[in-house]
# Entry
Amino acid sequence: MLSTINENDKRLDNSNAINDIVEQLELSSYGISQPAISPQVKGKWRLLHTNNADTASPIQRKAVDASKYNIYQDIIIRNVEDQTTGENVDRLIVSQVVKFGENAQLAVDALASTSEYPLEELTERKGTGKILGLNILGVSKVGDEAQEDDERPDSRIDFVFDEGNFDFNGLNIPYPVPFRLPLFRDAVKGWIDITYLSDKIRISRGNKGTTFVLVKDDDEP
# Structure
């Protein structure tokens, strides 16, 4: 029992130390300005730490647990077919990739919107995400609580989850959430505020209260 308590205390100390460093970086003046539209924000980012906020859904808390899996977030420009016009257009995509092993992964893609790549669909989210009072999809900030910080222009990336796939050694299985179904479309909207960005480090805070610390990892296959 004593060793378990000591190990828990060690994790808590590490978490507190990371949170202190995060706050120091966020308050510093060394970060890149307008991070959401900066060229440095694009590329592959590896998740180092998250606080797994209680407002996140149980599924999301597992999907961002960097202590168990290698987790990456790709911010890329992809040429895709517009669902309304049928024309090919450049879209900003945020892709969350969870690697369960060498030949197994989950990739969930979200259409994203910034002032550089605006997406008309991404209107303000209306609902918190609770269903019958239950935290099934996670609890999002909405209304005044969700307003962008005027002192940090172009720091937010809005997104809406669009599709996901499991890949087991080349066998693709669709993610079992109907992201494009109108009934769920508002509930799968979200945003990340980039509170610190450098060439190598990104700190983001999400609409469900989770803090993410990521490192640039463009050389990762």
Notes: The helical segments are 2-27, 58-63, 182-185.
